[in-house]
Amino acid sequence: MTRDADARARACLTAVAPPGDLWLGAMLAEHGAAEVWAAIAAGAAPPAVPCEEDGRPGPQARETLLRRWRRWSAAAAQVDAEQLLSASAAAGIRFVVPGDPEWPGRLEELGMPGSRRTYGLWVRGAGDLRNLCLRSVAVVGARACTSYGAHVAAEMSYELAERSVVVVSGGAYGIDGAAHRAAHSAGSTVVVLACGLDVDYPRGHAGMFADIARTGVLVGERPLGATPHARDFLVRNRLIAALTPGTVVVEAGRRSGALNTASHAAELHRVLMAVPGPVTSAMSAGCHMLLRDWNAGCVTCADDVMAQIGPMGDLPEGPVRTSAALAPEHARVLGAVSGSGTGPAVIAAACGEGLDTTMRILGMLAASGLVERCPAGWRLVR
């Protein structure tokens, strides 16, 4: 199985199955994406695989899994891999899979037994996902935040960005938006979305997302055009926690999506931090619970966060480049990129590679610091 076949299969799987399905993740680990996708597309029986969800061999549990498989097979009939990848590329969206230079190494911990693996990530923006996440902190909190929470999130995120720390959050209103805007004004930020990256959700953040894509990235597990479902936000939260060495909860009620992100951070043994607030504020009740019952670190500013994270300060600042010699096909793609900007379809035609292969190679060249995204497509890094 070639890497391209594996990537194409994983891209197709994002179009038919919900993110983080335990059963599908176990099948991918056992049989590989190409074999699993071929079985789904052909309407064949699912490959046998041990999984927590089918650990009870009763007929009712098995039938539930088979109904899920049949839904995926029915949806697969509408998926065209070439069209999916080319339409995504035209929208400035690339697909990154395990083993790619842009793949964040921390996500490998989602491959532990019982965890919700990601099949692959759709990425939009000029930044390099892996490099941005090397020095990063998640800043999350309530959508209906107070002015106190928005102020703390903005000030902390701005100071972190000044220290070359990338802020990762979920792109929502409230604390997320305040953190993204402040970090973007001083550095880079990563937005983890629960929908397709061409879908502006929430709509009021469309302008912010476009601005962030110029230096940072938007990332998600849903394909082009996918609108979010309620479950997707909770599954998305595990990515926010996994991409970073630590998570800060600025404001959260007792029942909050931010607390769900905190639980993922704790499960992944990440550094968990919380900002204290007024004892009379319902929006700080979740943070106080984290401080009291979860042994979260108490933080009030960027210096506190850096002290909690600790070893992250030893990581190199700025992008990481590789000095490895280019493979012939990589050299051909690089030779087709101009200094002013070239569209991906033009690059593919000039170098003689398919569009999906060209996009994957461009992602690798970007990870090496040789090319970058621009309004015209891709350009050489000066």
UniProtKB/TrEMBL annotation:
<dbReference type="GO" id="GO:0009294">
    <property type="term" value="P:DNA-mediated transformation"/>
</dbReference>
<dbReference type="InterPro" id="IPR003488">
    <property type="entry name" value="DprA"/>
</dbReference>
<dbReference type="InterPro" id="IPR057666">
    <property type="entry name" value="DrpA_SLOG"/>
</dbReference>
<dbReference type="Pfam" id="PF02481">
    <property type="entry name" value="DNA_processg_A"/>
</dbReference>
<protein>
    <submittedName>
        <fullName>DNA processing protein</fullName>
    </submittedName>
</protein>
<comment type="similarity">
    <text>Belongs to the DprA/Smf family.</text>
</comment>
<feature type="domain" description="Smf/DprA SLOG">
    <location>
        <begin position="95"/>
        <end position="309"/>
    </location>
</feature>
